[in-house]
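Quick start: what a row looks like.
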Amino acid sequence: MQVQITVNKKPRTDEVEPRQLLVHYLRDTAGLKATNVGCDTTSCGACTVLLDGVSVKSCTVLTAQADGGTVVTVEGLGGTADGGQMHPVQSAFREEHGLQCGFCTPGMVMASVGLLSENPNPTEHEVREGLEGNYCRCTGYHNILRAVLLAAQSPDAGKPEAQVSA
C-alpha cells in the first residue's frame, strides 16, 4: 500500500506492507536510525516519536495508521535536522547528563517533549508519571528527571520545532 507521511517536516510517499510497524518504516525506509527498537511490545519506550503531536511508541503503531500524518523523530527536533541548534529538551539532557549509554535517550527525549506539550510546568511526581513506560537501564533516572524539570523552564520545550536560543 502507498502512504504519505510528513517525517521531520519532509513529505514522503512510500510503498509499505500493510503490517509494517512505524518504527521499521522510520529506520528502514526513512533511514532515521535514532528511533530504537528495544522490545516490540511497547514496554521500553526506546521507539517513542511524536505522531501528529502526540507521543507514541512506534513499535505498536502501524505505518498505515500514520498515513496522512506528521511524524517527528529526535533527528527532527528543533533545528538539528538542518544543522541548527538543539531543542530545549536535548540541551537539558546534555546539561544534566540525562544519558549514559544513550540507547533510551531518543525515546526519553521524545516522551519528554510530548509530556511538556501536555503539561508545560510539571512537578517531579508528574514527570515520573509522564515518563512511566520509558525505561533506562543505566542512569537510575535522577538526571533524566532533572533534565526534564530544567527543560520545563523553557516556554518552548513542548514544541518540536523549538530551538535553544543562542
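That is the whole record. Residues 2-76 form a domain with the Ubiquitin-like (UB roll) fold (CATH 3.10.20.30). The chain has two domains: 2-76, 80-151.
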